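Methods — Computational structure assignment.
A single polypeptide chain was analysed. Its primary sequence is given first, followed by the predicted tertiary structure written as structure tokens.
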Amino acid sequence: MHACGHDGHTSILLATARHLSEARQFAGTVTFVFQPAEETGAGAKRMIDDGLFRRFPMEFIYGLHNWPGLGQGKLQVNPGAIMASQDMFDIVIKGMGCHAAMPHNGLDPVVVASPLVTALQTLVPRRLSPLTPPVLSVTAIDVGTAYNVIPETAVLKGTVRCLENSTRQRIEALIREMVGSLPQAFGLTGEVAYRQGYPVTLNHPDSAHRVYNVACRLRGDANIVWDADPSMATEDFAYMLESCPGAYFWLGADRQGKEAVPLHNPRYDFNDELVPIGVKLMTALVLSHAE
């Protein structure tokens, strides 16, 4: 299972739509966006490319996500980045295969892959500002199939997460520089296939303040977390925020006295008590635009 609570999010939005359509306490038009393929399919981008904002003009857009690690009913919103960008890379180191007993007859990509992984980890603390640190993780090394054969190639795979677009561009350039130079010192070559994925989920300050003010009225100041640490996970609502002013926020899911099970865990279970809280928050956001 996906184990992220999108069934609960859908319930919140459906209930909000039903309430607003029956109460009719607002002026204007409210559009409810039921977006597929949030996690890896970039459903938001596909909807936008299909004319979402052209066919359904919007002045503001808001999204929420339940959040284990935050107490039930608490809310966090940031006036800037709240979730990171996500990029992926494949690095191919090309050498020359040979018999493992005669390594001098070949060019061994295994001994280059190892220092390259270590060297890539130095980019974050030594080549980038510590004030906007990204996360760079090499998550797979695919090399060799036999005990007595030095392979021809080694493939490294990994991901990069950033909270600023300038850092995102810079680290891609540094990875390409490292892969282009380090293998050459051993007589091998390196190539990078770098794919930019979801952008930074960057809230618009005015919309984030609106969420904060509405939440304070409903939940009380003590239950609102403002501008705390963002998550280095990623969210394709970022595409929505690139196209329309708005804000994305987290609704705390942890039940008091019960174990906090994280998202994507096989034991995760959406906290149904968040549904009425979420409906009240989303309804109040709509009504706040009529004040």
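Note: The mean pLDDT is 95.
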